[in-house]
């Protein structure tokens, strides 16, 4: 789910204190947030964090590197 969808559905896009959520999966167990100019993939159940980079383009490349093509494809939507 892209940021605009999250914003409409949940009434806001802020997750971790000061972070902006740009993507969240269907069951809400994972999200990508931008926090302190760093994109982070967060697994909600264990709060595991995977740092993706400082730009959205860096984040997309890192998602491909770690084999998360499912998320990468969703971020490529217009």
Question: Can you walk through the features of this model?
Answer:
The chain is an alpha+beta fold. The protein has one domain (3-75). It has helices at residues 3-10, 56-65, 69-75, and strands spanning 20-24, 30-35, 38-43, 48-53. Helix 2 (56-65) runs antiparallel to helix 3.
Mean pLDDT across the residues is 82
| Beta-strand fraction estimate | 25-35%
Q: Please give the radius of gyration in angstroms.
A: 11 Å
Query: How would the global form be characterised?
Result: globular
SS summary, helix count: 3
Strand order of the largest sheet: 1-2-3-4
The figure for the number of domains is 1
Q: What is the β-strand count?
A: 4
N-to-C terminal Cα separation, in Å? 12 Å
Order of helices and strands: HEEEEHH
The assigned structural class equals alpha+beta
- Portion of residues within helices: 25-40%
Low-confidence stretches: 6-15
Largest sheet: 4 strands, antiparallel
Structural topology:
Layout: H1 3-10, E1 20-24, E2 30-35, E3 38-43, E4 48-53, H2 56-65, H3 69-75
Antiparallel strand pairs: 1-2, 2-3, 3-4
Brief overview:
By secondary structure, the chain is α+β, with helices and mostly antiparallel strands. It has helices at residues 3-10, 56-65, 69-75; strands spanning 20-24, 30-35, 38-43, 48-53. It contains three helices and four strands, in the order αββββαα.
Q: What are the defining features of this structure?
A:
single chain, alpha+beta, 3 helices
């Amino acid at each position: 789910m892209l940021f605009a969808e999250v914003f409409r559905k949940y009434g806001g896009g802020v997750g971790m204190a000061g972070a902006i959520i740009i993507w969240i999966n269907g069951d809400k167990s994972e999200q990508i947030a931008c926090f302190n100019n760093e994109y982070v993939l967060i697994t909600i159940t264990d709060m595991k964090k995977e740092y993706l980079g400082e730009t959205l383009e860096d984040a997309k490349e890192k998602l491909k590197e770690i084999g998360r093509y499912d998320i990468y494809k969703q971020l490529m939507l217009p």
